[in-house]
Amino acid sequence: MKFSRLRIIHGLIFFFLTYILCSFQTVVWFQIFGSLASPFFCFILFVYFGLDKEDWKSVLYCYSSIFIYSLFSYASLGILMLTCLFNYILLYVVKNRVYWPGAAYFTLITGVSMTLFNVMYMVNSYLFEPHFSPFLIWDRLFQILSTTLIAFYSYPVIKRLDILFKPEMPSEVHGELNG
Length: 179
Description:
The chain is mainly α. The chain contains 7 helices and no strands.
């Protein structure tokens, strides 16, 4: 019972953090910086969970975070879900083929994922929407670069939060190891 409660608290903390980051990205950023394109803050958590968690947890969190982001955005939920499906497949393949822990790897994968997200969002928007998303090359480049830069500095903070609120494994799981 305690293990399940800790798991729920861990998930709720990161969902709340996603909500806060989405609100900062879509509301507060434009109040402070005007029309400058905002970094995709909640996507950093998307990449973190896609790389560092088990498959079922990462799918659950990644799609929940995109749903939360869609509440703050004019973007179509279907287009966002389809675009994030491509990103999740990239993260799944990379996680299972080439993975090493650390901020440099996380930053690299965040940059690649942000680039794929922007390209696939434009393609999906062009294919499935009557009024597709504009190209906006400088805004998209700024968003990719700023998100990648912020990912490098936010990785230790996210990792520390994850370890701090991580549910402990039950003692019977470690029973054989402890004798």
